[in-house]
Structure formats: C-alpha cells, structure tokens
Amino acid sequence: MKLSLKFLAGIVAAVGIANAAFAADISGAGSTFAFPIYSKWAASYQGVSGARLNYQSIGSGGGIKQIESKTVTFGATDMPLPTNELSQYGFVQFPTVIGGVVPVVNIPGVKPGDLSLDGATLANIYLGKVTAWNDPSIKKLNPSLNLPNQAIVVVHRSDASGTVYIFTNYLSKASADWKSRIGNATAVDWPAGIGAKGSEGVAGNVMQSSGAVGFVEYAYAKQNNLSYTRMVNHDGKVVSPVAASFAAAAAGATWNQEDGFATMLTDQPGANSWPISGATWVLFYKNPPDKAATAEGLKFFQWSFKNGDQIAAGLDYVPFPEAVKQKIEASWSQVQGWTGR
Question: Is the pLDDT of residue 253 over 80?
Fold first, then answer.
C-alpha cells in the first residue's frame, strides 16, 4: 500500500478535525509514530460503530501535555512515563502496537535497502562528525555501493517526540560520545542539521533535499517510497526494517502492568532484531473528567485489539500477542466508569 504525504494530510483533515456539525466522539493527541495505524483503525471503527476519532498527530510531547491539561480523552506517546509520573497524574498507561524507527535517505541512485549503516556511524552523522556520503566509515559498510562525494543534509525533529526518544535511546546505546554529549530524551539539543515538525515534516524534508538523511516510523518510509537504510544490529547482523525484525526485537520482552508496561526495545540481541524498534503507548485518566468519553476511547482500543491486527500488519506494525492484550485490558479495571464493554 502506498499513501502519499498529501493523502496522509487528507486523513489528518478527515480524522483529526471535528467541525461544529459533526463533533468527534473520541479525542486523542500525540505520537506521530502511531498516527498511520490509529487513522486506519479509526476509519474502520467508524464504519462499524459510528464513533469518530479526533486524533491530533502533534508529537508525544504535545500529547502528554494535552492529556495532562485534560483537553483530550487520551494522550499518545512513544516514551513510556515512569511510575512516579503515572501516579502523580493518575494515569493508566498501556502499549498498543510495536513498530520500528528507520533512517531514510535521499541519495541519487540509492534505492530502498541499498545502504547499510551501523549505530556508531549513524550517531557520528547526527553529531556532525561524518559530513559526506563517501566518508570512509560509510564506504566500509557499503563496499559495493557507488556513493557520491555529496554533503549529508541532516534532518531531525523540531518538536518533542517519542520517535526522537526511541532514536536517541538507540544512539545512546550505540555511541558513548552521543550518550555523554546529547543523551536520551523526547527533545535534545541537536548538534547538526535542520529541524522539521512531526514525522510528516521529516519525511517531506528528506524527499525534497538531495543528500538528506532523516528518521521516521517505518510506515512513513514505506508509504512514501523513501529509501530506508538497513542496519547492523546488536549481534552484528545486517537487517532490514520489516515486521518480522520488529517482532524479533520484542521476542524477549516482558510487559508488566506494575510499571505501566514500560519496556524499551532498542538494541535488543538476536540475529534478526531491528535495533531501533519500539512500542507506542496511550494514557487515560483512572478518574476521568468525562467517564463516557473515556469509555468510548477504551472501546475503540478494545475493538482495535480484537479486529485490527491485519490492518496493523498491513502497515508493518506488530500487534501484541493475545496474552499481552489480555493483561492490557485487565489493567483497564482501574478506570472509573469502565465496565469492560
């Protein structure tokens, strides 16, 4: 399936904006990583329930702020909140799908999957230490690829983002220099490059700039035919960003209600593991200001867990196993007004 950025913008308009005549039944905001799957789930769910989702793809930082200020029914984030913050705000937190963050490039003659990178080299590109595509460190990883003597145009997120959190979490594991100088957060002081808002903005900038490199959730790369890279993983194997490699990264993960199901999936061992994998989470209030709206939001995710696996797989997200879904739905008993249906 190929969806253009223009088409995604149309989904934003259709799914994310409610007018006075047709007020949305469910409101959410945050993760751009999760936007492709939430928009597809929402379209199918509306067809069977009549309920509409008003989802604002504004980045995880914005989603957390909106749920904290009680302006949306749920917030969506790719950075799980720690237990002290969950307790402070009275949130229930649970993951919805697993996916992968992928580097994408715009290099003349380089097709999707042609270029391979490792974590140290990727970190050095984003540190501004590797500045040309024919740098020896890149050529060493790609001896048979004809790489141009072209400047690298680094593109990064300008907003607080869970995708940034996953990406910088990986770079902090792959590079001691990155860990000490930049670190891991939803927003960092980028040492090089130009900023763009949202995964949509990063994808658009990479498409328009010859020599560019960026990072997006894999669905954005696939839908817009961006040239994604392969990566050298924790075990030293070169892997492609596909659902099977995202699933391999999660194979040994434990998901526990006690810590809000907060498990990071970057740089996991395993020959087939994609090194920049991650889950995405949503936040609801245990004592919601609008119990009816919250019940509708949980019904949406309940339906999606039951009926949305094929939709998720079509976008190369990895659905959770049934046993994990049961643990997640059991955690909703903490939400006042939720009856289980």
Answer: yes
